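Take a look at this chain, tokens included, and explain the fold to me:
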Amino acid sequence: MSQRIPLETMLDVFVRNLRNVGFESDRARRCASIFAENSAVGVSSHGLNRFPEFIDFVRRRIVNPAAEMVCTARFGAWEQWNGGLGPGPLNACDATIRAIELARRHGIGCVGLQQTNHWMRGGCYGWMAAEEGLAFMAWTNTKPNMPPWGATDCHLGNNPLVLAVPRPSGPVVLDMAMSQFSFGRLETYLREGKPLPVAGGYDADGVVTTDPGAILSSNRVLPIGCWKGAGLAMLLDSLAALVSGGDTTCRIGQRDPEYGVSQVFIAVDVTRAGASRGDGLMDELVADLRASRPDGENGDVRYPGQRIREMHRESLEKGVPVDPAIWEQVVSGL
């Protein structure tokens, strides 16, 4: 059972909680806005539902609410920054802004960010860049939470990847983990008592299953594309550490809980090659995809990011869907 809350109400409640654990006013509002918007676009797993854990990390001093990222090296269009174990969403937002600034100057901008924390919904940084007219890609490593292909214990992160391209009528934004389902999404399905729409991992007996509880218990998620997703996860981890100067999943896994992850943010000023040509290409591509014949089950063929716009519009009109128990926990001050 769910209820709906006005977006501004959610934002105010988040701000109050953040202020209570040491966030300065402006940073509290920026951070709260990211969590609230994540829920507003239908990703409550990285919005309201993750907020209590985030507050707990701040209280335990795993996340430093006052820390701001600092530049440690500059190589022209590529820079390395240290996040100081500050709030992951704020560091990621600032890294995206810096990558955009570099791209405006050089045509392409790359920010490697080490010693930061979970960025929550990576897609929101893709939307930031694409709505500024830039193409964008970003990824993060994580603690070991996914087995290599052919293994049963976790030595890979599910290392989320974001790809975004601008388009006048709305960006195309892909936000995906290297596992078939993110852990936040698995927890949402479990909380709602629903099976996964497709197999997402293994049960305790090593049998592929759609049962989110069994997958969370076995801690054995299924990589996207099987061995291909496992290989991609390893390379994303490697690049994140090399470009940022930070830690790999292997080293992050030596700490508990997860903190001090490595991330990469790359922005490309595609307008330098002619904005009108790019706009036309993307409109043509999306129109061609939307003209695909539905398989009869879903009734509609969507492009990445289309659902986000629809959910946000609905949340503004009707309120943001919330889990009543989690919402009450946050309202009461956790």
About this structure: The chain has a mean pLDDT of 96.
